[in-house]
Amino acid sequence: MIVITPSSTVSAVPLTLDPARRRFLCDPTERNKNGIATWSKLRSSLHGLLVFEQRPGLYAVCNPVTRQWTNLPVLAPDPCFTAFTCGFYFHGEYRLLCHGEEASPSSDRPWGYQQPVAHGEILYWSSTHPQAGRTGKMLAFDTASETFRLMSGPPGAPMAALLELDGSLCAQNLLPCPTRLDIWVLQDHEAERWTLRLRMEVPPLRSPCPCMVSTAISAGDGSMLLIGDPLCPLVLLFDIEGKRLVKELHFRTAPSFLVFSESLVSHAFFQLPRCPELKPLKFPDRASGDSCQEEQILGC
C-alpha cells in the first residue's frame, strides 16, 4: 500500500504486513532555493505505473522500478474550465479518465471522484461521484466499451467502501452501526444483486482519531482487511476468517489506499519527447538501497 511521508516522498508498505521496512519509490516534489516544495499529487497506480498531477492538465507517469518517466498528453484548457481525474485503465493503451467542467463546480457538486475499484474490465465508484447525491447510486465504467452506467449498491449501505476480495467485487460498511462490520458481495453485475457475505461485531476504537471509513483493501493472503480513510492516519486491520479486529495501525501520515505492484515492463511511450513544463521525478540512489526511516507503522 502506498504511503506519503511527511516530506512528501512516496513509499510502499508490503501488504503481507511482515516487519520488513517499507520501500522508497520516488520523490515527486520540486523545491526552490528556499526549500519550499511544490507537491505533485498522486492520482493513480496501475501495473507498476504511478500517475501524478503536476498542474491542472499536466500529468506525469512513471515506473519507479525502471526509473522511467514522462508526461501524458497535455489537456487543452478549452472548452473545460477545469478537469479532474476519475481513473486510470488499459484499453490497448494506458488511458487516464478525466471529468471536465465547463464552469466552476457549484457547491452541490463534488470537485472529484474517489479512487475507483477495478474488477474485471469495470471501474466502480460508490458514494463519491457527481451523480451520487442526486441518484443514491454507484457509478460503473466499462473500460472495454468505454461507457458509464448507474447501478444500485448494497442495500442499506449508502457509504460502503468498495474493494476486490477473493476475485469478487465487495463492499464493506461500518455505518450506521460503528461497532458492526458488514461485507457485501456483488453476485450479479447486470441484475445489480448483492448478498451479505459476512457480519461481525467489532470493539469501539481506542483512538481519538475519528475513523470515517471510506475505503478498504485486502491484505496478506486475502484473509485480512485494511479499512480507513485517506484523511486519517489510523488504519484498522481485520481478520475476516476469525471475525475479529487484529490491530490498529498508526501512520505518521495518512495512507493513500492505492496498491503498487512492481513491474519491469519498459513502455515505448517513455521514449517520446517530454513536455517542456514537466518537472523531473527523483528516484532512490541504487547504492543507498531502498530503506528510509521517515515513516513508522505502529500497532496497538
With strands numbered from the N-terminus, the spatial order across the biggest sheet is 20-21-22-23-24
How many strands, which pairing sense, and closed or not: the largest β-sheet?
Answer: 5 strands, antiparallel
How much β-strand is present in the residues? 35-45%
Which structural class do the helices and strands define?
mainly beta
What share of the residues lie within helices?
A: under 10%
In N-to-C order, the SSE pattern is EEEEEEEEEEEEEHEEEEEEEEEEE
Mean pLDDT: 83
Write down the domain tally.
1
Number of strands: 24
Low-confidence sequence ranges: 288-300
Number of helices: 1
Per the CATH scheme, the topology name is: Neuraminidase
CATH architecture: 6 Propeller
The CATH class label is Mainly Beta
Radius of gyration: 20 Å
Shape call: globular
- Report how far the terminal alpha carbons are from each other: 19 Å
Protein name: F-box protein
Organism: Panicum miliaceum (Proso millet)
InterPro entries: SCF_F-box_component
Written description of the protein model:
With 300 residues, the chain is mostly beta strands. The chain has one domain (2-29, 37-271): Neuraminidase (6 Propeller). Helices cover 1% and strands 42% of the residues. It is built from one helix and 24 strands. The protein has one helix spanning 132-135, and strands spanning 2-4, 10-12, 23-26, 30-31, 37-38, 41-46, 49-55, 58-63, 68-71, 82-90, 94-101, 117-119, 122-125, 138-142, 147-151, 161-165, 168-173, 180-188, 193-201, 215-219, 224-228, 234-239, 244-250, 298-299. A hairpin with a 2-residue loop joins strand 16 and strand 17 (168-173). The longest helix has 4 residues, at 132-135. The model is unreliable at 288-300 (pLDDT under 50).
